[in-house]
Amino acid sequence: MIGRISGRLDWRGPDHVLIDVRGVGYIVHVSERTLAGMPAAGEAISLYTELLVREDLLQLFGFPTMLEKEWHKLLMTVQGVGAKAAMAILGTLGAEGVGRAITLGDARAVQAAPGVGPKLAQRVILELKAKAPGVMAAGAGLAAKAGAEDVVIEESAPAPAWKPAKVDEGAARRASASADALSALVNLGYGQSDAAQAVATVMGGEPDLEAAGLIRAALKLLAPK
């Protein structure tokens, strides 16, 4: 299993890239969101990958974080959601957006992805709503980007200048706050599903809250009316 690809970005296509790893070129399929955040051709790149194996086809799908990779795997467990549909959902909503949409039962947000109709969007919500809190709780440890600092580019000619991939500190901080808040609410006795829905609701309106503020706001939503 190929779990990560690190090398030089040789070429960018509409939905895939070619990454040179010590003279071997790998075609990796990525979402529009991931493609937009990539460096220029010739620079170092590192992606977490998932290998899709079929009888007549081998395809690599790439993700900037393990969190997106885990969401992609979970989305593909839904009947009718293939690898490309899962990438379309992630490309439209991002990892955090997918978690929030599923937790809140927002089928319209999922339906906004290209090629995803209302029935399929509703199925995604129904089948994954109970599983979403688990991914959200693990989000803090999965949100860091695959680093390119250790990439070695070997060429006969001088290698182009490159910059290491930057960690998305904002995404990592939000995932950490979300995970901490969810854990605290569950420890207080709230059900994981209810706690996750409250956290997702608060983050939808105030995504930059720290864990303490997130917990306070979620508790207000969970308080008996």
TrEMBL record:
GO MF assignments: DNA helicase activity; hydrolase activity
SUPFAM superfamilies noted in UniProt: DNA helicase RuvA subunit, C-terminal domain (SSF46929), Nucleic acid-binding proteins (SSF50249), RuvA domain 2-like (SSF47781)
Subcellular location: Cytoplasm
Positions of region (Domain I): 1-64
Domain Helix-hairpin-helix DNA-binding motif class stretches: 73-92, 108-127
Pfam families: HHH_5, RuvA_C, RuvA_N
Family annotation (InterPro entries): DNA_helicase_Holl-junc_RuvA_I, Hlx-hairpin-Hlx_DNA-bd_motif, NA-bd_OB-fold, RuvA, RuvA_2-like, RuvA_C, RuvA_C_sf
Keywords annotated in UniProt: Cytoplasm, DNA damage, DNA recombination, DNA repair, DNA-binding, Hydrolase
Region (Domain III): 173-225
Principal location class: cytoplasm
Domain-related comment: Has three domains with a flexible linker between the domains II and III and assumes an 'L' shape. Domain III is highly mobile and contacts RuvB.
Quaternary structure note: Homotetramer. Forms an RuvA(8)-RuvB(12)-Holliday junction (HJ) complex. HJ DNA is sandwiched between 2 RuvA tetramers; dsDNA enters through RuvA and exits via RuvB. An RuvB hexamer assembles on each DNA strand where it exits the tetramer. Each RuvB hexamer is contacted by two RuvA subunits (via domain III) on 2 adjacent RuvB subunits; this complex drives branch migration. In the full resolvosome a probable DNA-RuvA(4)-RuvB(12)-RuvC(2) complex forms which resolves the HJ.
HAMAP family cross-referenced by the UniProt entry: DNA_HJ_migration_RuvA
Functional description taken from the UniProt entry: The RuvA-RuvB-RuvC complex processes Holliday junction (HJ) DNA during genetic recombination and DNA repair, while the RuvA-RuvB complex plays an important role in the rescue of blocked DNA replication forks via replication fork reversal (RFR). RuvA specifically binds to HJ cruciform DNA, conferring on it an open structure. The RuvB hexamer acts as an ATP-dependent pump, pulling dsDNA into and through the RuvAB complex. HJ branch migration allows RuvC to scan DNA until it finds its consensus sequence, where it cleaves and resolves the cruciform DNA.
Family: Belongs to the RuvA family.
Protein name, as recorded: Holliday junction branch migration complex subunit RuvA
The gene coding this protein: ruvA
